[in-house]
DNA sequence: GCCGTTTTCGGCCCGACTGTTTTCAGTCG
């Protein structure tokens, strides 16, 4: 049973307790534990295996620890089963509709016998819902609208699709005179792998003019709300964009508040209460004298709380507040630290640009090296290179290198790790390359045991230096393959092999919490784009975002090192 | 149910909006 599944049980328990009208703090305790479990970089099964104390997880105490153990050992939880049996089966479905909370769900279920969204829709159209106590026509209409929203739209989109919209809007609005501080907040700023909406914040001499410019942008499909300091619009891809302006002197607290995460802010506010302070988007209030202090910058805001500045990417309630108290927040890796890209395709296999074009694009980014990793012959669909074509590519790389100074093309390959763990290229071919990347491209539905054995085989292969996209997931399209990552991480350390953080926004693999755990265990990491055309090299920032969310410093990432140092680190 | 440089008992984050109400419950971020 994985962490997500365990967390789901506790989320459901919280929902059921809420339906029962239980103590709100008890409900909150279950929700808090569920969130903590979801964000845990380590699988709980692994923790139990290592004999670690589950009560070390923040929000998990005696009772929940016992319930987790019962879940893991027996596969189910009696407390949960009993609770679930108390309610009609459809009621959880009703709770998924925004605007319907526990009270409304219970009312709909007990008084109208509604179990499904279709039944709810029918009841609204019949006027039965509006007739309930403390419900009216407007409430019923709102629910109907939410049902339609839920039906024809996937709520979250990959950050790679949101970021270009953010860039476009900011570019268009920042030229307006008197505009300052225009920046995304929320999950975009924290570089989460998917985002549900875009929050933009700023300060301006004339906010209304900026808002007018926003609603007139071609990419705005619909205007939901438009006021003097705030606007909400729907972009052409269906994503909601909120833009909000405040006075310059309170920008810091506003940005902090809307950047989140929710969990981070809750802990921050709980801590502030103990100091006699109250936090809000407007600033910090000293409760004893009831005076509000405003903050122009986030740095000043955190400083007032006695905390070191915390980068947005790690504001996830993973212990960053304690570290900020001690002044030991790590200096996270930055895009400008990256000296080369290590996973790049050209028109020799399934890429679109020539070797020279890719090299020039890398030089333009200020890189010192670029590892060419066209597919090997096993991937016929990708026009993989056989011995003869690889020889010719090596000659061309050598010829190009004679023309460069301060930059080097490295010869490599992305070899396929076959279903049985063998590699689709002969050893004598691999030994002529500077660096070899291995990756799984087929039979991704194998059992956990087979997939793990397959990857461990590749890690122990002396010719392979880096394992690319270790879980093979495609966000929103393909689930990660089942693999014992803890075993993979330990093997990578043992054999001195590097694991990739794939920066392609549809992959981001390893993902944040997995990269976090890998770093903890001392795995060497690289960040690569898996570029199939020159423009893709610019996707590096998404991989850096993942690395920062994993608390990585520059020294944790091999391709922040100068060429000679990078090569010797790989060679052990 | 969790948790503790004010506590092993008594607290537990903050503000806004909406719709239904004559003062507030429910929901959300």
- Strand order, largest beta sheet: 11-12-13-14-15-16-17
Please provide the count of β strands. Answer: 17
Q: How helix-rich are the residues, as a percent range?
A: 40-55%
Please indicate the percent range of residues in DSSP E strands (runs of 2 or more). 5-15%
SSE-based structural type: alpha/beta
Structure description:
- The protein is α/β, with parallel strands linked by helices.
- It is built from 24 helices and 17 strands.
- The chain has a seven-stranded parallel β-sheet. It has a five-stranded mixed β-sheet with strand order 2-4-7-6-5, sandwiched between helices.
- Strand 16 (498-502), helix 22 (512-520) and strand 17 (524-528) form a beta-alpha-beta unit.
- Helix 1 (3-20) runs antiparallel to helix 2 (24-38), helix 13 packs across helix 15 (298-304) and helix 20 (448-460) packs parallel to helix 21 (485-495).
- The two termini are 36 Å apart.
- The model has no long low-confidence stretch (mean pLDDT 92).
Q: Summed up, what is this model?
A:
This protein is an alpha/beta fold. 43% of the residues lie in helices and 14% in strands. The two termini are 36 Å apart.
């Amino acid at each position: 049973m994985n962490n997500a599944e365990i967390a789901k049980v506790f989320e459901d328990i919280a929902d059921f307790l809420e339906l029962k009208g239980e103590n709100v703090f008890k409900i909150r305790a279950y929700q808090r534990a569920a969130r903590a479990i979801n964000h845990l970089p380590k699988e709980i099964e692994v923790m139990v295996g290592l004999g670690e104390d589950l009560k070390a997880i923040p929000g998990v105490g005696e009772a929940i620890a016992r319930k987790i153990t019962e879940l893991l050992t027996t596969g189910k939880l009696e407390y949960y089963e009993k609770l679930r049996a108390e309610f009609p089966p459809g009621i959880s479905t009703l709770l998924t509709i925004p605007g319907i909370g526990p009270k409304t769900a219970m009312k709909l279920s007990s008084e109208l016998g509604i179990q499904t969204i279709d039944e709810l829709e029918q009841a609204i159209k019949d006027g039965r819902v509006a007739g309930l106590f403390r419900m009216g026509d407007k409430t019923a209409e709102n629910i109907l609208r939410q049902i339609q929203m839920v039906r024809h739209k996937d709520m979250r989109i990959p950050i790679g699709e949101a970021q270009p919209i953010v860039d476009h809007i900011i570019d268009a609005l920042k030229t307006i005179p008197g505009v300052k501080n225009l920046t995304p907040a929320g999950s975009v700023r924290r570089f989460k792998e998917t985002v549900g909406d875009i929050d933009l914040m700023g300060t301006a001499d004339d906010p209304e003019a900026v808002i007018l410019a926003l609603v007139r942008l071609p990419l705005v499909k619909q205007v939901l709300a438009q006021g003097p300091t705030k606007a909400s619009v729907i972009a052409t891809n269906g994503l909601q964009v909120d833009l909000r302006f405040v006075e310059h002197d309170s920008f810091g607290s506003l940005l902090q508040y809307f950047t989140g995460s929710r969990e981070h802010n809750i802990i921050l506010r709980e801590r502030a209460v103990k100091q006699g302070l109250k936090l809000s988007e407007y600033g910090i209030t000293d409760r004893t004298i009831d005076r509000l202090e405003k903050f122009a910058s986030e740095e000043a805001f955190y400083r007032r709380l006695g905390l070191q500045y915390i980068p947005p990417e790690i504001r996830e309630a993973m212990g960053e507040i304690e570290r900020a108290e001690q002044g030991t927040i790590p200096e996270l890796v930055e895009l400008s630290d990256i000296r080369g890209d290590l996973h790049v395709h050209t028109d020799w296999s399934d890429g679109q640009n020539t070797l020279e074009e890719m090299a020039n694009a890398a030089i333009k980014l200020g890189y010192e090296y670029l590892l060419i990793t066209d597919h090997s012959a096993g991937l016929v669909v990708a026009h993989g290179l056989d011995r003869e074509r690889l020889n010719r590519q090596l000659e061309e790389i050598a010829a190009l290198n004679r023309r460069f100074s301060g930059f080097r093309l490295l010869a490599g390959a992305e070899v396929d790790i076959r279903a049985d763990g063998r590699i689709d290229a002969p050893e004598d071919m691999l030994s002529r390359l500077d660096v070899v990347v291995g990756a799984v491209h087929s039979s991704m539905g194998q059992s956990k045991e087979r997939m793990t054995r397959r990857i461990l085989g590749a890690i122990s292969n002396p010719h392979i230096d880096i394992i690319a996209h270790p879980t093979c997931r495609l966000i929103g399209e393909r689930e990660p393959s089942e693999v014992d990552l803890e075993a993979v991480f330990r093997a990578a350390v043992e054999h001195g092999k590097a694991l990739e953080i794939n920066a392609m926004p549809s992959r981001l693999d390893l993902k944040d919490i997995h990269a976090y755990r890998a770093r903890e265990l001392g795995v060497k990491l690289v960040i690569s784009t898996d570029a199939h055309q020159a423009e893709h090299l610019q996707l590096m920032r998404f991989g850096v975002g993942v690395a920062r969310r994993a608390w990585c410093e520059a020294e944790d990432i091999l391709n922040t090192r100068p060429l000679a140092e990078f090569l010797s680190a790989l060679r052990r």
